[in-house]
Structures
1.
Amino acid sequence: MAALLIGFGEWWLYIGLGVAAIFLTIGIDRIDEDARGAYIFRPLLIPGVMLIWPLVLWRWFKLETNSESWRKRYQPQRASHARLWLVFGIIIPVTFLAAMSFRQTPPADFEPQRLSEAGETAQ
Amino acid sequence: MSDRAKSPFFVGYLPIPQGLRSWLIAISILLLVLFAAVSWAVGTTQDDPGPGAFRFDFGRQTVTGILEAKPYPLVHVKQGSERIPAGHTIILSGQGKNGAISRAEPLDGKLVEASGVILKRGDLDMLQLRGGEAGLSAKDGQGGMIAPKPEELGRWKVAGEICDGKCLAGAMRPGTGLAHRACANLCLAGGIAPVFVSSKPVEGSEFLLMAESDGGPLGDWFYDYTAVYISLEGNVERRGGLLVFKADPDTIEVLK
């Protein structure tokens, strides 16, 4: 399981590196006129792009295709905020309590057992 | 004016609107009580990290004794210091997450001078060596002195957890448990001696230096079981003042 998670993380970052290479050399000039001609700051964005590359691609697509609705983007999401507050208010304590409850119990009562006498090395 | 425009609105740098004052006070008190309750609950449900600690207050300790490199470096003290009496057996480690295997191997069986800082937890002692020959070096005058002969104590089934000896002895608090697992495995990968913490004492000791069943350092099998409560069988032997548990990985069982 741990190897799977690490493998997933590696591939995520490899893809992110590819997206960063393309976005920071081609994409950023196409969607942000303020970035044109400015290069020194671009390497600083590489780690961030590697982490959130799906969002970068999504935003690039929206801006490239002019399907961005800035009104919708900046509209406060107060309705869902209340629901999310409630959901997280339940999920976080439940997760915490589950983590505290479903854990190994120390074998405090286990008495070490001698399986063979001193001086013997029987298997 | 719409109802929405008339509803009170909180702005941090303006006085609190009258309609929100009681709500704000109630929430503030509730959060204070809640945080205090959660802090108390978390604090009281944690396992005791134990009394282990780096004993910098003891000052630098220098001892002379016979070095045994396997399974992990330890010194049977012949000439003690203020805090480490003669006859004591002390495990060695390097600095940080480094063991002392490569430094100890050329000195196996020889009289050495070891110098450093003690980590102490109950009857488990570890000496974090100084760098270079100031920390560990051969010493003249061995004469006929040799390491104590191992005393076989039979085969045992024990339950508890595998820890790295350094954090357990006091480099970390806690130096045991699942939260410490990644740190323990890093220390063990660095060559620090693994120690089995038994649920109850075996022949008077709850800490057993671990070894492979052939007496050498542990293989890689144990990494998946570090910091997990397990039961395990193996032969136990006494080497000086220390018990060595020669673990048999085929008998390992993860406890519920």
2.
Amino acid sequence: MIYDQARYTEGNKHEPLLSEKDDTTVAVDETDSPLPDELTRDELTLPGLSEPEIARHYTRLSQMNWSIDSGPYPLGSCTMKYNPKFTEDVAADPNAAIHPDRSASSAQGNLGVLYGLQEYLATIGGMDAVTLQPPAGAAGEFTGILVAKAYHDHHGNDRSEVIIPASAHGTNFATAAMAGYDVVELPSDEGGRVDLEALKAAVSEETAALMLTNPNTVGLFERDIVEIAETVHEAGGLLYYDGANLNALLGRGRPGDMGFDIMHYNVHKTFATPHGGGGPGAGPVGVVDELSEFLPSPRVRETDDGDYERFDPDHSIGKVHGFAGNWLVLIKAYAYIARLGDEGLADASAKAVLNANYLAEQLEMDVPYGPFHHEFAATAGDRDAADVAKRMLDFGVHPPTTKWPEMVPEAMLTEPTEIENCRTLDQLAEAFNNAYSDTDEAIETAPSRTTASRIDQVSAARNPRLSWQALDE
Amino acid sequence: MSFDVPDDLTYLESHEWTTTDDPTVRIGITDFAQDELGDVVFVELPAVGDEIEAGSAFGVVESIKAVSDLYAPISGEVTAVNEELFDQPELVNDDPFGDGWMLEVAPSDEAAFDGLLSPDEYRDQIA
């Protein structure tokens, strides 16, 4: 594919800021302000631009950016799925836009959707109870571990450690530390999975929980999961499932059936809601029965009359976010699950695994660990994975996750997801192979066809040029 | 790749070095540590007069790859801070045992250096 990203340049700047395009100043009448003079202004710069100018500004910014709507985005462990547009229509429906303080009796439809999503997620994960409140995956993890802590405290068990495999997401370590636990890092065995003997040596009466991702971060299914669960449970610990890779299991296996007690769902990964770039997300948490009374409040339940009501679990850890969570994200996840249904969800996981395996077969790079599921960690060998990735940008695709997990040298963690067809996977494979076999000079100076060329990360970090300061210069 | 491990210093498993001079010691991070971190972009250090405690974090070093805590080899009072690092964090990369030093500390305990690594022990650790 021939690819050249859009460039709109004025002087030495790409598409100037709105306030650089026009600096119309308007007088402000602040005579009635109760604030002291030093806190108020007499005039304000407000760009006086026409609607077409503004529309073009944002369109240009979007063209100089990359998204799943632009092309393949195989960012391993991130599950960058296409976001079906019908879910935007559902979220934009005026009936969806109600104030969260409305009485339960006047919000039955919305509460019904929340209840329905709790039930969907519980069924998918094999859990008994679900909270929709956490606003992101990491927030879900933190909530889940706080629930585990509340459970242990409630039973008078003062435990101090959380066990985490070395290959886990960095957020797991941060979650355990933020919840006040000491982290015990577990080495991987030669095959890239949890080392069962090391686990047996690590568990003790101090073990509050084991946090595990399954399939793990190189796409390997933890085959010993039943024995892992028994080992942790026998020590009185809980088993936490990181839902980052749930897309590989949808409709095929359930964390609850494997022995997990707590899990979070990344609805932006598994259920195709937007990743949001730090904007609103959702990281619901599911638990088994005996942990349900510790979940955040409020939750939603169905009454004997078939109505829906909010309620506070008996020993709730309290709120982790406002109201029911990020409603407009949750309703998109609900819509996606309802549209795909049982067969569609199971089909998604099958195709996610097939696509990853097909793509890996087309690559000239080695894939040290396998057989894998929905993602794989190829190695760039003696080449710099970041350089290869930058070169891939020149071929009209987004590169995979690079240099992680660290158990694979110069890793390129790749997850095409189920959304790509064979033609796109071939294009992706071509980009991988072209970049991987390119000259040192080509990859070290790449990318050249994108709006911005190679970023000088060191200078950017040491001497950041902040826009608000730049405007004053 | 071989890393510089000067013979006149004492080391921590967490890759800090310290002199054992009297009355103040000088502390920094090793050649191996700066190489692992990559380009250092920010260093956060305590102020002169602050107390640091052996085995506890006394500061932070940030590179384009990672943010890492800095661990104190000894307990004592900070008597000098290398303020050059605030404007030129690259000194940690360019000269980790020289201009890239971080703190000078007056140790509060004479037995403070027990349990630290000799140059040979540290060489074994990073081998």
